[in-house]
Amino acid sequence: MELGSVVSAVRSKRVVIGNDVRPAVVIIKDGKIHQILSENFSVGVGCEVLDVGDSVVMPGIVDCHVHVNEPGRTSWEGFWTATKAAAAGGVTTIVDMPLNSIPPTTTLGNFHEKLREATGKCFVDTAFWGGVIPGNQLELQPMIHAGVAGFKCFLIHSGVEEFPHVTDCDLHAAMKQLQGTGSVLLFHAELDVQQTTQESGEPSQYSTFLQSRPDVMEVEAIRTVTELCLQYQVRCHIVHLSSAKPLKLIQKARQAGAPLTVETTHHYLSLCAENIPAGATQFKCCPPIRGSNNQEQLWSALKAGQIDMVVSDHSPCTPDLKKLDTGDFTQAWGGISSLQFGLPLFWSSARKRGFQLSDVVRLLSQKTSQLCSLDKQKGSLGPNYDADLVIWDPEKEFEIQEGSIHHKNKITPYLGITLQGVVCATILRGRLVYKEGSFCPEPLGKHLLIPQRKNQAQL
Prior knowledge:
Elements: E1 9-17, E2 20-29, E3 32-38, E4 49-51, E5 56-59, E6 61-66, H1 79-88, E7 91-96, H2 108-118, E8 125-128, E9 130-131, H3 140-146, E10 151-154, H4 168-178, E11 184-188, H5 206-212, H6 215-232, E12 235-238, H7 247-255, E13 260-265, H8 266-270, H9 292-303, E14 309-311, H10 342-350, H11 357-371, E15 389-399, E16 418-428, E17 431-435, E18 438-439
Parallel strand pairs: 1-4, 1-5, 6-7, 7-8, 9-10, 10-11, 11-12, 12-13, 13-14
Antiparallel strand pairs: 1-2, 2-3, 5-15, 15-16, 16-17, 17-18
Pfam family, one: Amidohydro_1
InterPro entries: Allantoinase, Amidohydro-rel, DHOase/Allantoinase_Hydrolase, Metal-dep_hydrolase_composite, Metal_Hydrolase
Protein name: allantoinase
């Protein structure tokens, strides 16, 4: 079957439908799943069936935390390379963060500029987060009308000057604008606290950086988030939770009725502080990768449903900003590139801890699409859902090599490691966009997915 061609049906012995994995044929019509039938069903004449044998067929991954950085910082990434990497990783939808593009997605005008830049460059479907910064509260509702999935803010310096962090006053102003809209506010949940230690020690030692961003920074930030969430009853979401210590606060707020969700990332689940070599700044991110005991607590919380979803937080940059020559953790850009490898990263660790294929769908597709109100069209296999499918071999191993990385900059802490789970093909709205290392010649992704919110009519 040629790349870019329309797929009418996909047959497999392992199709993930709800909590079941069973033989089935997925019938596709006009880019949507038409019906799902038992394996022995004979498909009509002229209907081309893609028979993938024993390979797993499941909903395409929805990665709702990706920094594409276009316009303005296309030397870091860009829609063309980011969405290609996504397709190669079985990711059929990305949601782009409001930074580190220049300008950031903090006004309606800036949002339109980003949409113009994305046009004709997306190999997978793309949605967008807006940003909350000091003084832009009157831009929020116009951006909701224009189709943003929700908003992100920082409680600490963001790392770039054009996206300043918010104060309590800014947060209350934003929450008032978001009440009744059905939208969601995402928080980079670290807060400068008095106990925070200054970076003192050898700058090439990872422990020097780790000690400068202790767990208490996340705990105190999340305390602020839970109070706001309970007060305003606006959906709130904690991005990239790295510390297990705030989990009790989160549970308590949810039990009290807070509409609060939380994500963690592949790097917090796959990497731990004890194994980070001196000078290996490709491991730096904020909040930081913590110790192995903390990591096991994150896995337990994921299993218990206390953490809702897993994302990449793909945050690339150019090699010079990573300070690879000096290995200085205190000066290097914080961000890890993993958009292409999220599925095998997660599966390689999760399978050893008793997670099933249905858990992969729930944590990487369903819950992520719910967060951005795309769950009526993305994240599940069922009639009338977009025919976004990833076909993959969960038993097959591969080594991450530089030549197979489709991100613009090939800097990643995962270089040379062996993972389990090979993506064979990716189908986007019924079209074959990726197969065994090759891509559809033209980008077929939509560059603006419109969220479908329950409360939209009240706006």
